[in-house]
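Postdoc handover notes: sequence design on the structure in folder B. Input tokens:
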């Protein structure tokens, strides 16, 4: 698997996807992405930066949450049942699909973060906030 490609998930979405690109993914697709990200995290554990850990943990949480919202079944059992099927799938296809989905999720989080920032009331000026006048 190409870790560099996955770590670029915070990059903007590809233009051909457009704003309304919402493919239907099954709970099993979400579980596959969670397994994929878990494998990356295990592989990178020794050299993972705090930013990478935050990003990958967020993506893992996203896919696990999507899975649980659709199935609500025991995660350990779900991973155990799905792993043999996951191993039979094309690794490059899983990597490509999950990487695009992670970038899409990151882009949506950036937009939401910007919107929340704009909704915050202006912070009152405090002593020391301004540069001294010359």
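Designed sequence:
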């Amino acid at each position: 698997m190409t870790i560099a490609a996955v770590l670029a998930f915070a990059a903007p979405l590809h233009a051909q996807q457009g704003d309304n690109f919402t493919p239907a993914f099954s709970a099993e697709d979400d579980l596959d992405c969670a397994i994929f990200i878990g494998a990356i995290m295990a592989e990178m554990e020794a050299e993972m930066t705090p930013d990478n850990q935050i990003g990958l943990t967020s993506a893992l949480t996203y896919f696990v949450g999507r899975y649980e919202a659709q199935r609500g079944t025991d995660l350990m059992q779900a991973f155990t049942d799905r792993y043999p099927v996951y191993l039979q799938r094309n690794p490059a296809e899983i990597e490509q699909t999950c990487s695009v989905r992670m970038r899409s999720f990151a882009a949506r989080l950036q937009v939401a973060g910007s919107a929340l920032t704009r909704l915050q009331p202006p912070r009152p000026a405090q002593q020391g906030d301004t540069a001294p006048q010359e």
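Context for whoever picks this up: Residues 1-21 have pLDDT under 50 and may be disordered. Don't rerun without checking with the PI first.
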